[in-house]
Amino acid sequence: MIAIASVNPFGGAAKPGHREQEFADWFQGQLDDLGLETGRRDVADGRPNIWGRLKGRGAGPSLMLAGHMDTVGVEGYDEPFVPVVKDGRVYGRGACDMKAALACYLEVVRLLQESDTQLDGDLLIVGLCDEEDIMIGSTDHGLHGPHADFGIVGEPSELKLCPAHKGQLGLFIRTKGRAVHSSMPEKGVNAVEHMGAVMNALSTYNQDLQANGRTHPLCGTGRFSMNVIRGGDIVSAVADTCEMEVDRRYLPGETAEEIVADYRERLDPLSKFIPDFVYEISEPSLDVKPLDTPTDSQLVLAVREAADRALGRPVEIAAFPGGTDAPNLKIPCVILGPGSLEQAHGLDEFVEVQQMVDATSIYLGAAKRLCRSGGTQ
Ligand SMILES: [Zn+2]
Fold it and tell me: Which residues, in sequence order, are bridge partners of residue 211?
């Protein structure tokens, strides 16, 4: 799986050398070989989602095990696509994020079949494209399905059970100026200098969120950071435009409108002190929805039981640190998977084999508990 370089092309269409489609073909082939009913849907050219259905007896709830098939890039990575098993770990790009979980899903099907276990409800295995960019795969799957009653997304959580995560709202703040020859800057309006005032006005926002912001029992408080800036064209002209892309990690229950209102509350007063100060806020450049599955829901209780049993200790319940495909799938979901986000996008990605074994047991136990008519007792 690691050897098929399914690096996200970061843009709408497939690009040469970015082998998401080849990986999807391979994964669908595995599901076909296991005898599942399979299907696929091209979300963009050469960028499919695929799925396989292990039919149950037809009487119970269905469970989706979902994961993304793409990986982040490999710049600076020494031999990213040469998988190595060493000291109880699997190394390579995509090892923990998240080809390990996809491998575990195949193993769950195999174990059910080998033990002649037929579930009451269907087990759906889903491979998604484009998680690492703007999640066109899960967005499309949420709209077009196939769906299930419950979902588990095996992102690398170190086997923590994560019913919640923050959302992420990216957008641009733009300042407008008036270009003049820089021999007489006092005749122009400098958009770069005005962006400096914007940065000043927002410089305490992240601290404010942590000290006085809303809180969520698992997610804690929101976060803010200023991460990309561009302005001006040449050194001999006063800059007439400047833009900054800012990132806001927001809590379940918060909305984009509230966040934009927060920005405006801090930026509107600037026009009182700064002549010709003009700014605008763009539509979102990125909007990953938050996840908030109730901790007393049937899904969380069943996965918790399965995990406690597989691990031989109470599973840790936490918020997942990043955003995921889960909210886009539009079914109750939790995140639980082998590996750690600390290794996920680094240059030495690995997953512990034992965590894959444990994750497989947890998924199997969860499927047996959830895909059963008459509930989870
Ligand atoms: Zn991931």
Answer: none
Q: What is the pLDDT of residues 262-292, one digit of tens each?
A: 999 999 999 999 999 999 999 999 999 999 9
Cβ-contact 293, 164 below 8 angstroms: yes
Q: Are residues 248 and 361 in the same domain?
A: no
Three-state DSSP state, 212: helix
Tell whether 49 and 152 lie within a shared domain. Answer: yes
List CB-based neighbours of ion ligand 1 within 5 Å.
97-98, 155
| Residue 14 falls inside a structural domain | no
Nearest CA-CA partner of 200 in 175, 177, 182, 223? 175
Q: Domain boundary at 251, 268, 288, which? A: 288
Spatial distance between the Cα atoms of 118 and 376, rounded to a whole number of angstroms: 16
What's the pTM? 0.92
How many angstroms separate the alpha carbon of residue 196 from the centre of ligand 1? 35
Instruction: Give the Å distance between the CA of 375 and the centre of ligand 1.
Output: 31
Task: Output the CA 69–ligand 1 centroid distance in Å.
Answer: 9
Q: What is the pLDDT of residues 111-159, one digit of tens each?
A: 999 999 999 999 999 999 999 999 999 999 999 999 999 999 999 999 9
